[in-house]
C-alpha cells in the first residue's frame, strides 16, 4: 500500500457514512404477519379495521343508558329491570331504554346503551337494578376505533417488527405486511492456513454466519479458498456473476505477499470505496461494489478484527438497506486517552455495580475476553461511546 493510499484511509465514522451512502435500499416483499417477527417494515402499515371494532364493555357488569340514571340518588333510587345478557363474541341482544342488561368484558354495547356499571358496584334485587347515583355516559366503555381507525397509519416504514407490534397489528386486522427483503449474503474464508497439516479452525466463517443468523436473517452461503490468486479469482468471479446483496471475505486484505483480495477485486471491475480505515483493530478492512451491484466487504483475518468489521461496517450496510437510521453509540464517561487520528475499539463489560470494565486482553487474535464481554467501547478524539456486543436491528 502506498503512502498516498494510506492518507486516504477514512476515519471510522466517515467509513460508516460511506457504507450507508453507497448501500441501496432493499426492495419490499409481502409476507404473512406471523412470519414478520424481526423483519423491518418496508412500507407504512395501515389498519385494516377499527380497533375496537365496536363500542365494547371494559369490564363485567351491567349496561344501561346513562340518561335513565339522571334522577337517581340515595333518597330517590331508580329501579331498572334487567333484561337479557350481552356476551363477548355473541350476537348483540335487542334491548330498550328504561331497562338494563347484564354484560361481559369485551361484549358489544347494545344499541341505545352508553354506560357500564362494574359488577362490584351493583345493587341488584331479584331481576331489578337499583341505582342510587347518576352514571356518566361512556363509563367503562371501550369506544370504537379509539386505539386505531381503519386507514390509519399504525406503523411507519423502517420499524423492526417486535412481538408486541405483531399483536397490535393483529388487533388492527392486519394479516400481511410489506417487509424489506432480506439480503442474500455469502461468506468466503481465505488463507492457506485453513487447510493442510497445520490447519487452524475457520473461526471467522462460522462466527460471521452466526452473527447473520442472530439478526434473524437466512443462514449465509459459505466458501473457503486458499491464498492462490487463480483460485481466489475463480471464486470471486463466480460471486461477481451471481446475484447477491452482500459478499464478505475474511483474510487476504492487508499488505503482505499473499494478500491478493484488493488487487483481484479491482481487476474484476469492482469499485473500491476505501481500503483501510483509521480504526484498531480492523485497519486493513476494504469496502467495494462489485459489477453485479453486490456490496463487498474484505475483512481482516484476525477474528476480533473480522467480528468488528461485521459488527460495524457490514451492519451499517444492513441498516441502510432496511431504511434504518445510523447506529449511534451511547456516550460514556471513561477516562481513556485517545490515540491520535485513530478510533480504538475495546472489549468491555458491565460489572455488577453497573460500571463499565475495560477487559484486560485487547489483542485482535484472542477471543477469551469476548466470552465475558457484553459491549464494545469506541475511543476517539470525541470521547468514548458504548455499543452492544452483538449487532441489533432497531
UniProtKB/TrEMBL annotation:
A cellular component annotation (GO) from this entry: cytosol
UniProt KW Magnesium keyword: yes
Reactions catalysed, as given in the entry: adenylyl-molybdopterin + molybdate = Mo-molybdopterin + AMP + H(+)
UniProt cross-references to Gene3D superfamilies, sorted A to Z: MoaB/Mog-like domain, MoeA, C-terminal, domain IV, Molybdopterin biosynthesis moea protein, domain 2, Molybdopterin biosynthesis moea protein, domain 3
EC number: 2.10.1.1
Cofactor: Mg(2+)
Keyword field contains Glycoprotein: no
Domain MoaB/Mog span(s) in chain numbering: 186-320
Pathway membership, UniProt: Cofactor biosynthesis; molybdopterin biosynthesis
UniProt entry keywords in alphabetical sequence: Magnesium, Metal-binding, Molybdenum, Molybdenum cofactor biosynthesis, Transferase
Domain of life: Bacteria
CDD domains named among the record's database cross-references: MoeA
GO molecular function, one term: molybdopterin molybdotransferase activity
GO term, biological process aspect, one: Mo-molybdopterin cofactor biosynthetic process
EC class (word): transferase
One protein family per Pfam: MoeA_N
Role of this protein: Catalyzes the insertion of molybdate into adenylated molybdopterin with the concomitant release of AMP.
Membership in a protein family: Belongs to the MoeA family.
Protein name: Molybdopterin molybdenumtransferase
Organism encoding this protein: Sphingomonas aliaeris
Amino acid at each position: 500500500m502506498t503512502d498516498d493510499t494510506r492518507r486516504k484511509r477514512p476515519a471510522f465514522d466517515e467509513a460508516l457514512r460511506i457504507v450507508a451512502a453507497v448501500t441501496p435500499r432493499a426492495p419490499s416483499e409481502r409476507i404473512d404477519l406471523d412470519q414478520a417477527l424481526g423483519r423491518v417494515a418496508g412500507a407504512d402499515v395501515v389498519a385494516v379495521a377499527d380497533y375496537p371494532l365496536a363500542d365494547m364493555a371494559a369490564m363485567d357488569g351491567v349496561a344501561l343508558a346513562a340518561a335513565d340514571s339522571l334522577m337517581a340518588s340515595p333518597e330517590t333510587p331508580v329501579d331498572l329491570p334487567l333484561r337479557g345478557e350481552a356476551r363477548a363474541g355473541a350476537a348483540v341482544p335487542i334491548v330498550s331504554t328504561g331497562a338494563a342488561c347484564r354484560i361481559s368484558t369485551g361484549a358489544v354495547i347494545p344499541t341505545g346503551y352508553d354506560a357500564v356499571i362494574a359488577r362490584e358496584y351493583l345493587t341488584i334485587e331479584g331481576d331489578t337494578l337499583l341505582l342510587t347515583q347518576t352514571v356518566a355516559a361512556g363509563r367503562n366503555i371501550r369506544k370504537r376505533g379509539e386505539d386505531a381507525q381503519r386507514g390509519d397509519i399504525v406503523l411507519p416504514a423502517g420499524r423492526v417488527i417486535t412481538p408486541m407490534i405483531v399483536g397490535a397489528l393483529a388487533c388492527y386486522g392486519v394479516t400481511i405486511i410489506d417487509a424489506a427483503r432480506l439480503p442474500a449474503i455469502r461468506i468466503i474464508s481465505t488463507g492457506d492456513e485453513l487447510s493442510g497439516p497445520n490447519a487452524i479452525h475457520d473461526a471467522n466463517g462460522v462466527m460471521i454466519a452466526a452473527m447473520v443468523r442472530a439478526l434473524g436473517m437466512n443462514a449465509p452461503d459459505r466458501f473457503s479458498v486458499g491464498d492462490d490468486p487463480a483460485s481466489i479469482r475463480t471464486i470471486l468471479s463466480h460471486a461477481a456473476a451471481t446475484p447477491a446483496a452482500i459478499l464478505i471475505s475474511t483474510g487476504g486484505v492487508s499488505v503482505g505477499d499473499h494478500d491478493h483480495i484488493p488487487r483481484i477485486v479491482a481487476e474484476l471491475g469492482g469499485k473500491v470505496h476505501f481500503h483501510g480505515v483509521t480504526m484498531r483493530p480492523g485497519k486493513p478492512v476494504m469496502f467495494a461494489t462489485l459489477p453485479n451491484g453486490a456490496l463487498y466487504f474484505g475483512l481482516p483475518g484476525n477474528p476480533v478484527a473480522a467480528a468488528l468489521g461485521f459488527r460495524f461496517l457490514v451492519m451499517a450496510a444492513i441498516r441502510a438497506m432496511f431504511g434504518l437510521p445510523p447506529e449511534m453509540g451511547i456516550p460514556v464517561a471513561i477516562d481513556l486517552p485517545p490515540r491520535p487520528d485513530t478510533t480504538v475499539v475495546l472489549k468491555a463489560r458491565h460489572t455488577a455495580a453497573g460500571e463499565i470494565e475495560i477487559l484486560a486482553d485487547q489483542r485482535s487474535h484472542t477471543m477469551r475476553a469476548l466470552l465475558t464481554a457484553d459491549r464494545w467501547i469506541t475511543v476517539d478524539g470525541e470521547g468514548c461511546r458504548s455499543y452492544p456486543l452483538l449487532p441489533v436491528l432497531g
